[in-house]
Design a protein that fits this description.
SIAE, alpha+beta, Galactose-bd-like_sf, 651 residues, Jelly Rolls, 31% strand, Rossmann fold, 11 helices, 37 strands, Sialate O-acetylesterase
C-alpha cells in the first residue's frame, strides 16, 4: 500500500532501539528495493520522493532518511510504497529501510536533479568512443556530484517489468566517464556549472530503435499496425523459436566465415604473418569501398599496408587510427594482433605497444568480416599512425585479397525494434522514480515514415507524462543532425521531414529542442560533436525546466512569409538579438513557383527578415531552408551561435 504520512523526527538513540526490537521479530522474507535504490543514488529535490519495494505480505516497515522516520505496511502482494517529504539539494545522506526481519541500507545519497536520458544510439553513444576528441574533458571529469545509472538492454512483449538490470550508480571520474552517455555527460556538466546542484542521469537507451519500441501498449492504441506487431510477439513459443532459429543462422554464418577463410587455411602461414607473399594481392587505394567486390559482397576480406620507420621511430609506442571500417575488423601489426573493433560506427583505434614496431619495413594487416553491407574503409575519417609527435598517413595504397565469399547474412527479427518491448522492460520500471525531466535523442530509425512520427512522438511524450504522474514535466529532444551525401539540387528528403515532425512536437507544453543541423557528418550517423549537443540541451533545460524565460535557447525559427513580386520576405522568431550569416553569403535556401519545382535561391538578411529570390522564378509561392538530408551550406544563425531551425513554407 502507499501511504503519504507526516514523518516524525526522531533521535538516533530511539531509532536504534526500534532497530533492535525489529531485528528480534520472527524471520520473514527480506526487504527488497528496485535497483535504482543503491549506493550513490540521486533523489529529486524540491518534490515529494517516492520510495518503494517488496517485503512479506502485511509486513510493517520503517524508512529512516535525513533524521526523519516514515512507516508503512506491505499490501497483500508484498508491495509497499511511501512518499517522503521534499528535500533541498544536498548530501551525502543515508537511507535505512527496516522490515520486521531484515534491513536495507543505502549510502552516499545526494539530492539534486534527476534526468531520464533516452532514445537510440546517439543518446547511448558513450564517451569512450570520442576519447581522443575530448581527452582534456575526460581527464578533468572528476565530479562526485554528477552520477549515471545505466539501464541494461532488455525487452518484453508480455507486460511491464517492475525492475531493471544495472550495475548501479557511477560517479563521474576519469575512469567511469568512459561509460557515460556523451550527450548526457555534457548536458549534466553544463547544468552543474550553472546551478551547482547534483545531477543524476538515468540512461535508458538502445541504438537503432524506433519510437514505437518505447511506447506503452496504451499509447499504441491509435496505431493498429504497431499494436498488432506487439501482440504477435506476445506468443512465447513463437518468440523463443524465432530467437533460436535466428541465432542458429548467425552462429553458422560466422562459423563458416572462419572455416572457409583461405587466409586462415594454412595454420603455419596465416595471412596476417609477415612472411606472406603479396604476388596475388590486388592494389587498391583506401579509404574507400571494395573494388573487386560489389555492394552485395559478404564474407572476409584481408588488407595489408606497408610502411617504413626509422630506428628512433621504431623504439616508440604509437597510436593507430584506422577511421571507421564496415564489419568486424581484426588488426595485426607485424604479425601480432593488437585489437578488434566491431561495427562501422565505432572508431578503429589501437594503442601500439612499445617494442612491436621495427626499424625499416612494417606491415599492418586487417581481417575484415563483412556480413553484407557495402564494405570498406569509410572516407573522410582519420587514417594515421602517431609516433612521438610524428604523423604517418595510413591513407593511400593497400593490398587486398578475398578470404572467402558467403551469402549475405539474414539477420531475422530485431526484437529491440518491436513496438512496446523497450517500454515494458526499460521505462515502466522507472515510472515511480521522481525525475526533473527527460532528454531524448532519437528519430533516425523513423526517418522512413516521418509523417507518422508527427503523431507517434508526441503520443509517446504525453503517455510517459501521464504514467509518471508528474504532470507536464520538461521533455527536451535533439533534432536530427545533417547526414548522408550532399546533393547539387533540392529534392525530397526523409531526414528533413523527420526534423519537421520533431519541430512540430514543440507545440506540446514544456518541450524544448536542440537543433544540431550544423554539426553532423555526412558519412556517420553518429556525429562526434556531442559537446555542443549537450550544451544546447542544457540551454533548453535552463529555459523550460529552470525558469530562465528570457534566455536565448534556440536559433531563429520561421514565423511567416510575405511575397513581393519575385522576392519572398521571411519573418522569424529571432530567439536572439538579430539574424546573422556565418559565412560570406547566405546559403541553404530554395524557392519554387507554382509548378512546385524547387531551385536553389539567393538570400540576404535585411534587418529582421531574410529576403529570398531566384531570377528565373517570377511568381514564387514557397521557400525551403536547410531542407535536405545534409544541408551542409546552411548558415543562418543568431549571435549566440545557434543555427536556424530547418523549415519549409509549403506543406
Amino acid at each position: 500500500m502507499m501511504e503519504k504520512l507526516k514523518p516524525s523526527k526522531i533521535s538516533f538513540a530511539v531509532f536504534w532501539v526500534l532497530l533492535f526490537v525489529t531485528c528480534c521479530q520472527p524471520v520473514q522474507a527480506k526487504v527488497k528495493m528496485p535497483s535504482l535504490f543503491a549506493d550513490g543514488m540521486v533523489l529529486q529535490r524540491d518534490a515529494e520522493i517516492p520510495v518503494w519495494g517488496w517485503a512479506s505480505p502485511g509486513e510493517e516497515l520503517s524508512v529512516f532518511f535525513h533524521e526523519r522516520m516514515y512507516r508503512t505496511q506491505a499490501d497483500s502482494a508484498g508491495n509497499w510504497k511511501i512518499l517522503m517529504q521534499q528535500e533541498k539539494a544536498g548530501g551525502p545522506f543515508s537511507m535505512d529501510v527496516q522490515g520486521e526481519s531484515s534491513r536495507h541500507v543505502i549510502d552516499d545519497i545526494y539530492v539534486g536533479d534527476v534526468w531520464l536520458c533516452s532514445g537510440q544510439s546517439n543518446m547511448e553513444f558513450w564517451m569512450d568512443r570520442i576519447k581522443s576528441k575530448y581527452a582534456d574533458e575526460i581527464a578533468n571529469s572528476e565530479n562526485p556530484n554528477i552520477r549515471q545509472f545505466k539501464v541494461e538492454k532488455d525487452y518484453d512483449f508480455q507486460s511491464p517489468h517492475t525492475d531493471v538490470n544495472s550495475e548501479g550508480w557511477k560517479k563521474a571520474t576519469p575512469s567511469n566517464v568512459f561509460g557515460f552517455s556523451a550527450v548526457a555527460w555534457f548536458f549534466a556538466k553544463s547544468l552543474y556549472e550553472k546551478y551547482e546542484v547534483p545531477i543524476g542521469l538515468i540512461l535508458s537507451s538502445w541504438g537503432g530503435t524506433p519510437v514505437e519500441a518505447w511506447m506503452s501498449r496504451d499509447a499504441l492504441a491509435d496505431f493498429p499496425s504497431h499494436l498488432a506487431t506487439a501482440e504477435k510477439w506476445m506468443d512465447d513459443s513463437l518468440l523463443s523459436e524465432t530467437i533460436r532459429k535466428d541465432q542458429q543462422v548467425r552462429d553458422r554464418w560466422y562459423a563458416e566465415s572462419v572455416e572457409k577463410d583461405q587466409g586462415l587455411a594454412d595454420k603455419n602461414l596465416p595471412w596476417y604473418s609477415q612472411q606472406v607473399e603479396f604476388k596475388n594481392w590486388t592494389k587498391q587505394n583506401f579509404p574507400g569501398y571494395w573494388e573487386k567486390a560489389d555492394e552485395d559482397f559478404s564474407g572476409v576480406i584481408w588488407l595489408k599496408k606497408e610502411f617504413e620507420l626509422s630506428t628512433d621511430q621504431s623504439s616508440q609506442s604509437a597510436f593507430l587510427s584506422l577511421g571507421c571500417i564496415v564489419g568486424i575488423n581484426e588488426c595485426y601489426l607485424n604479425g601480432v594482433k593488437i585489437g578488434t573493433t566491431y561495427g562501422h560506427y565505432v572508431p578503429s583505434e589501437y594503442q601500439v605497444p612499445q617494442g612491436l614496431l621495427q626499424a625499416g619495413r612494417n606491415i599492418i594487416t586487417l581481417r575484415i568480416t563483412d556480413n553484407g553491407r557495402r564494405g570498406g574503409l569509410i572516407p573522410d575519417k582519420p587514417y594515421y599512425m602517431a609516433i612521438d609527435g610524428d604523423t604517418l598517413t595510413m591513407a593511400g595504397e593497400w593490398l587486398e585479397k578475398i578470404g572467402t565469399s558467403l551469402p549475405s547474412l539474414a539477420w531475422g527479427t530485431d526484437f529491440s525494434d518491436v513496438p512496446t518491448g523497450l517500454y515494458n522492460a526499460m521505462i515502466a520500471p522507472l515510472l515511480p522514480y521522481r525525475i526533473k525531466g527527460t532528454i531524448w535523442y532519437q528519430g533516425e530509425s523513423n526517418s522512413g515514415n516521418a509523417e507518422e512520427y508527427r503523431t507517434t512522438f508526441p503520443t509517446m511524450i504525453q503517455d510517459w507524462r501521464k504514467k509518471w504522474g508528474q504532470g507536464d514535466f520538461p521533455f527536451l529532444f535533439v533534432q536530427l543532425a545533417s547526414y548522408l551525401a550532399t546533393k547539387d539540387q533540392p529534392e525530397q528528403s526523409n531526414w528533413a521531414e523527420l526534423r519537421e515532425a520533431q519541430a512540430m512536437t514543440l507545440a506540446l507544453p514544456n518541450t524544448g529542442m536542440a537543433c544540431a543541423i550544423d554539426i553532423g557528418e555526412w558519412n556517420d550517423v553518429h556525429p562526434k560533436n556531442k559537446k555542443d549537443v549537450g550544451k544546447r540541451l542544457a540551454l533548453a533545460a535552463q529555459k523550460v525546466a529552470y525558469g530562465e524565460t528570457e534566455l536565448v535557447a534556440s536559433g531563429p525559427q520561421f514565423q511567416s512569409m510575405e511575397i513581393k513580386g519575385k522576392r519572398v520576405l521571411l519573418n522569424f522568431n529571432l530567439f536572439g538579438s538579430q539574424l546573422v550569416c556565418s559565412g560570406k553569403e547566405l546559403n541553404g535556401f530554395a524557392i519554387a513557383g507554382k509548378d512546385g519545382q524547387f531551385k536553389r535561391a539567393k538570400a540576404e538578411i535585411k534587418g529582421s527578415q531574410v529576403v529570398v529570390w531566384n531570377d528565373e522564378i517570377k511568381n514564387p509561392v514557397a521557400v525551403r531552408y536547410a531542407w535536405a538530408d545534409n544541408p551542409d551550406t546552411a548558415n543562418l544563425f543568431n549571435p549566440e551561435g545557434l543555427p536556424a531551425i530547418p523549415f519549409r513554407t509549403d506543406k
